Structure prediction request, 483 residues.
Amino acid sequence: MTADASRTAPTPDELSTLFLFEALDPAQLAWLAERGRVEVREASTAVYAQGENASCFFVLLSGAVALSRRLHGDDIELSRTDQRGAYGGATQAYLGDRVDQVYSHTMRAVTDVELFVLPAAEFATAVRNWFPMALHLLEGLFFGTRAIDVIVGERERLIALGSLTAGLTHELNNPAAAAVRATDTLRDRVSRMRHKLALIADGRLDGTRLHELVEMQDAAVRRAREARPLPAIEAADAEDELGDWLEDAEVENAWDIAPTLVAGGIDADWLAGATEGLTGDHRRAAVGWLTYTVDTELLMGEIEDATRRISGLVDAARQYSQLDRAAQQPVDIHELLDATVVMLRAKIPDGVRVVKEYDGDLPLVPAYGAELNQVWTNLIDNALAAMDGSGTLTLATWHEDGHAYVEVRDTGTGIDPEIRPRIFEPFFSTKPVGQGTGLGLDISYRIVVNKHRGDIRVSSSPGDTLFRVSLPLDPPPSGDDEP
Prediction:
């Protein structure tokens, strides 16, 4: 059987068994049978390709087909079906030259298929002549829906982008401001250290002690790098003890510099040992030098921490958008979840605790990472809205029976049992007008179920709502995978 092989034209009786034509009268069925033909296509061949002139209307008689659309260089599968009577192709031929008459997607034969093929001009004639009222309704619906989709889609994207951008810039501002403050303070400390070096150079400080002073400085730097934060009470006791020692050594501003030295891991015993043999001005100068050294090291640690946080946020944004990744590839679900939490951090109230119960052995999942992040964003955002400022958000993962599972659980008010069957419907929303389009869960469902061939389910009661997403761990078989 070749890709373009044909058999005899269909009979009117055969066409009447298709749900699309079952209400037509014998004359109309005969008209279709006379003008149409049956074609067979082998598995893995294209029935028609996106962008080509829409010359025919296709109805599936047997086998299975898949529809896909090319987006930014990648072929994204929209759906696949083996339902007899499913159709595609020149479905907008009745609109004439008011729209571009090209195929909006690609139809591919998943198995060997039989198709009823009707030329686009004949299909348009049938719709116009047989269903004039339906034609007007379809025209209004098509152009009206397209206009609404453009307005709503643009608004929704702007709102989502604005929310994420505001959150990200807020998160970036904190470490950036901390780095600026630390840099300004560091500049002052370095200036004072240069002043101490000047004292050595002009002889006011004994230059013979410089070697010992540098060794003390190196030891202080090592302690500052290894210092651990002390509990408040323990830190206060250490500052009191060190402050007393500094006062006994007649060091100026003893109680101002004690917290800095304690934060750098310097206590009274270490400082006494380090300055042993020094007296008077030499000891005070050595303590001042060590204080500047510790303070400088702590400031550099703050700058390093701030830049790491900025780098982490940028990496999370990159991970969230998946801009540098192939459309479909094995992904780390935990990285995707963590990136989404980072991007939404500004929307997580102080009263909401985030708990992560991750499966340490969870394997990589073949998936479209950027689109799964849309799913996590929608589920987490809904959970936060349900908790209204306080509660626990739990993210859990595990795997079994060839599937990876992701749970998003919240302690919010729950979903009313009466509306639960409708939550995945397009445009259905429980939010007030202006606070959502009701597209989030519908998009999530289509991404998980239609695109990844997974499943998404929900259970809910007051104080415990759970969305569970399952994703297959194995990619589709060769010749049957999504492009």
In short: The radius of gyration is 35 Å. Residues 1-6, 433-438, 477-483 have pLDDT under 50 and may be disordered. The chain has twelve helices and 16 strands.
